[in-house]
Design brief:
about 375 residues; alpha+beta; Butyryl-Coa Dehydrogenase, subunit A, domain 1; Butyryl-CoA Dehydrogenase, subunit A, domain 2; Butyryl-CoA Dehydrogenase, subunit A, domain 3; 3 domains; four-stranded mixed β-sheet; four-stranded antiparallel β-sheet; 10 strands; about 50% helix; globular
C-alpha cells in the first residue's frame, strides 16, 4: 500500500495546521471551551472558509468530492490540537448520512448549509439498552396521515449540544435488533415534542440526550426508503470510527511530542530525565505503538469504500490496534510527567482525557477484538 500523500493532500494538511497553530493554542482552546456550546462559532466558520466543512460532499452540493484520506488528515490535525468543534458529528456522521441516504432535494437543502458552516447537525442513533449493537433500535416512528410521529429516546449524541438539526434513527417495522425496519429522519432541534439535554463529556467535548414525545414530521423528513436505513448507518459509523482513529493518532502524536520535550528539559539530580536509558526505552515503545496505529488507520481509511464485510473487518482491526495504543501511550505520557501530568493546567491531562474518551467511541478495543474474532474476512 502506498502511504505517500499527494501534493494536494500535503497542501491540505499544511493549511489546516497553519490555521490551528495561529488560532488554536492551549489558552485559546480553554477560552473556546468556556463558550455556551463548548466550542467556537468563529473557528467553525474559519473551517468553513477553508473548505473543510464540505470536503467530502459532492461538488454540486457545495463540496469538493474528496476521499476519506483527506478526512483522515484533517482529523489527525484536529487531534493534535484538541479541536472542540463538532466536525465529526456534523460533517462526517450527519452530513455523510444525508449525502448517502438522502434524495436530491434533501441534499440540496442541507448539505450546502453544512458546507457553509451555517447549519450544525448531529446523528442521534444510540439508545440506553443498545451498547454497540447498531440494529438495537426501539424508538418508534409510525405513519400519521402523510407524515410521521416519533416517540423514544436517544442517548449520548456525540457533539450534539450545539446541533440545530438531528438525523434520528427510528424503527418503522419489526422487533428490536431486527436488521430491517429502521429509518432515518431529519428532526429540527426546536421541533415540538423534542427535549434536548446537553452536558459536557470527560474528553472535553459536549454531548446530548434526546427525548422524543409525539414529534411530528413531514413525509419529506424521512431520509431514503423507510425501513432500509441500517446499511447507511453502518457506513456512517464505520466512517466515524475511522475519523476517531485519526483523531486519536493526532492526539497520541501530541502526547509523545510533549512527553519527549518534558523529559529533555526536566532536570533531576543534575541531569535531564531524557539521559536515563530506561525512560528513553519507554518513549521508543510509545513511538512504535503510535506508528502501528498510524499505519492501521491509513489501512482502515482506504478500506471504507470496500464491500461491507471487508470494510467492517478493517475498521475493527483499526479500532483494536488504535485502542490498545491509546491505553499504552496516554498512560505512559501521564506517568512520565509525574504529578504535573494530572493537573488541569497542563496539556497532557487534556490529551489523556481526549484519548480515553475516543477509545470508547463506536466500540472499544475489547469489543472490536471480539468482532475480529467472529469475522471471516482476511485482512492481509
Amino acid at each position: 500500500m502506498n502511504f505517500e500523500l499527494t501534493d494536494d493532500q500535503r497542501l491540505l494538511t499544511e493549511s489546516v495546521e497553519k490555521l490551528l497553530l495561529a488560532r488554536y493554542g492551549f489558552d485559546k482552546r480553554k477560552q473556546y471551551a468556556s463558550e455556551p456550546c463548548g466550542w467556537s462559532r468563529e473557528i467553525w466558520h474559519a473551517f468553513a472558509d477553508l473548505g473543510l466543512m464540505g470536503l467530502t460532499f459532492p461538488e454540486k452540493y457545495g463540496g469538493f468530492g474528496a476521499s476519506p484520506v483527506e478526512t483522515m488528515l484533517v482529523m489527525q490535525s484536529f487531534g493534535r490540537h484538541l479541536v472542540l468543534e463538532p466536525y465529526l458529528a456534523s460533517v462526517i456522521l450527519a452530513g455523510g448520512l444525508v449525502s448517502r441516504a438522502g434524495d436530491d432535494r434533501q441534499r440540496q437543502r442541507i448539505l450546502p448549509q453544512i458546507a457553509s458552516g451555517s447549519l450544525v447537525a448531529a446523528f442521534a442513533h444510540g439508545e440506553p439498552q443498545a451498547r454497540y449493537n447498531l440494529a438495537d433500535v426501539v424508538t418508534q416512528a409510525r405513519r400519521e396521515g402523510e407524515g410521521w410521529l416519533i416517540d423514544g429516546a436517544k442517548s449520548f449524541v456525540i457533539q450534539g449540544s450545539g446541533a440545530e438539526l438531528f438525523v434520528v434513527s427510528a424503527r418503522v417495522a419489526g422487533s428490536p435488533r431486527d436488521t430491517s425496519g429502521i429509518a432515518l429522519f431529519l428532526v429540527s432541534a426546536d421541533a415540538p415534542g423534542l427535549q434536548v439535554t446537553r452536558y459536557p463529556t470527560r474528553e472535553g467535548l459536549h454531548a446530548a440526550d434526546l427525548r422524543l414525545s409525539g414529534v411530528r414530521l413531514a413525509a419529506a423528513d424521512c431520509l431514503g426508503e423507510p425501513g432500509k436505513a441500517l446499511p447507511f448507518i453502518e457506513g456512517a459509523v464505520a466512517a466515524g470510527a475511522m475519523a476517531t482513529c485519526a483523531d486519536a493518532v493526532g492526539a497520541m502524536q501530541a502526547a509523545l511530542d510533549v512527553t519527549a520535550s518534558y523529559l529533555k528539559t526536566r532536570v533531576q539530580f543534575g541531569a535531564p530525565l531524557a539521559n536515563l536509558q530506561a525512560l528513553r526505552h519507554r518513549l521508543v515503545d510509545m513511538l512504535v505503538m503510535l506508528e502501528q496505529a498510524r499505519s492501521i488507520t491509513m489501512f482502515g481509511t482506504v478500506k471504507l469504500d470496500s464491500v461491507a464485510a471487508e470494510r467492517d473487518a478493517a475498521v475493527s482491526a483499526s479500532k483494536y490496534i488504535v485502542g490498545t495504543a491509546i491505553r499504552k501511550i496516554s498512560q505512559e505520557a501521564v506517568q512520565l510527567h509525574g504529578g504535573i501530568g494530572m493537573t488541569d493546567e497542563y496539556i497532557i491531562s487534556h490529551l489523556f482525557r481526549r484519548l480515553s474518551g475516543l477509545e470508547k467511541y463506536f466500540g472499544d478495543a475489547d469489543f472490536h477484538l471480539g468482532m475480529l474474532a467472529n469475522s471471516r474476512e482476511r485482512l492481509f
